[in-house]
Structure formats: C-alpha cells, structure tokens
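FYI - complex with PXL, inputs then prediction.
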Amino acid sequence: MPQSFPAVLVFAGTDPTSGAGLQADILTLASLGCHPLSVVTAVTVQDTLGVEDFLVLDATWVADQARAVLEDMPVAAIKIGMLGSVEIISAIAEIVSDYPDIPLVLDPILASGRGDELANEDLLDAMKDLLLPQTTLLTPNSLEARRLVLDEIDDEEAPDLDVCAERLLDLGCGHVLITGAHEQSAEVANALYSPDGAVQTLSWERLPGSYHGSGCTLASACAALLAQGLEMSEAVKAAQEFTYQTLRFGYRPGMGQYIPDRLFWARDDESDDDPKPSCLGGCTRSLPTGATPRA
Ligand code: PXL
C-alpha cells in the first residue's frame, strides 16, 4: 500500500499568481508533508501588484465540494482563507460544526497586501458570529485583529494588541496568533495567546522585501503541523520557522511583490552558504490581571 499523508481541507479563493490564496495553501501543505483538499470559495483576477476583481461561488457549490471529500476520507485539519459571501460563511459554519474534533485554523482575510478589500462589514460580522466560536486557531495580522474587535471596544484609539487578543478569545477562539509585520517595530514579533492567559512571543528579523502570501503560508503551515499531531505552541513555533525560511528564500516572478518559496528546502542552491539564524528570541508572559482566564 502506498503511504498516506494527513489530509488538510482548505476553503480559499484562487490566486493565479500562486503567491497567496488556495495555490499558496496547496504548496505549503504539500511541502510540509500533508495532502491538500482544496475547496474553491472564489476566483480572483490578480497579478503580483494587486487584486483586480473576484467572482464568488454559489454557497451550495462550496458546500458540495467540501462534503464530497469529507465523506470520502478522514481529514486531520481544516484551514479557512478568503470566504467571499455571508452565504458561504453560513455553509462552512454548518459543515465544520459536524466535525468538532478537527482542528480549525481561520485566517481572517479582510484585504490583499495592497489593501484591496476582500471582505465587507457583513462578512466580518458573520465570521465573528458563526466561525470564531468554532475556531481552534485564529491567525490575524495586527490590522485584522484591530478591525475584528473595533465594534467590541468603546475606546476611540487603536486598541493594544493584548486587548484585541482578549476580545478575540472572548468571542470563542481557542487560540489567537497575532502577527506583527505591519507594526512599526524593528523586528517582527508574533504573539500566540492561549486560553489560560499565556502569551508566547517570538521575534524575527524584518526582511526587506514586500511579500504576497506570507499570511496564507503561515496559517496553512499551522494547519499542516496541527494535522501532523504537534501541540499548539510547537505547531505555531514550527510554522513561523517554516514561513520565515520561505520568505528568506522568496523570489520576485513579476513586477510586484515577492512570493514566499514554500519549496525552499528542495532547491539545489549552492549560494546559501550563509545560513541565517532564524528566531531572534522569544518570551513567555501572562496577560495582566483583568484578562479573562479561560478554562
Ligand atoms: O493574502 C490574502 C489573500 C488570500 N486569498 C486570496 C487573495 C489574498 C490576497 O491577495 O487574493 C485569494
């Protein structure tokens, strides 16, 4: 019998550049030894400069794609990217509720790297109401984290990321990983918030390029490693290490952004005689009193 690999079911929009979206997820999952099951939610028209347009699929087509593979084989993790419509969110929410034991990684895609809107306020609300309570790991960047909790916070000022994470945990996510590439810090600090109030921060060198698909790569890598059986903090740490290497070996196939190389380890590259230190450091702390300790 041929060997079988853990299957990861992905719901995502297509990206013809393969920088982000479904193609990025498939490359990442395959690179990390998983079998990708790919459910299309939307089709985008884009190049490495930005998204021109997108077409959202009928929700029944999304549900039918997912049910077909879920009924055919065991699935070890589910990853959700671009959602497209409130109807698709409802359909996915109903499907994942039938599989409560499968870890669910939700990358709350709100915009492309250039800022093209990929989700409106109705989508945001439906995501919060229907998907966050079923999410094992939410992976927003800092901009998405702030936008997701905007309605929950009275303060006019942009909330601190610890506060955002607490609100997101309160909305029902199991864990929240907030990435720091959009912050003004010298290094990129990514923080994993756990239900017991623990915060595990890892810092990474800020690479000079602008990358298309780094968030999809990270979220898919988390799903792959959870599917392989790693526990949450180990999976998130290994996924960051993998993503950092894909960025370090990133390349620029077109006129716009760099694309992470998810197959960096398979290249025969003699030029990499300067192996870089990966993680610059890490710290673990607890949220200050006032944070909601959760069971
Ligand atoms: O990187 C977020 C993202 C996810 N999915 C699709 C996208 C993008 C960004 O452009 O196009 C389909």
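The chain has one domain: 7-266. The first helix runs from residue 21 to 31.
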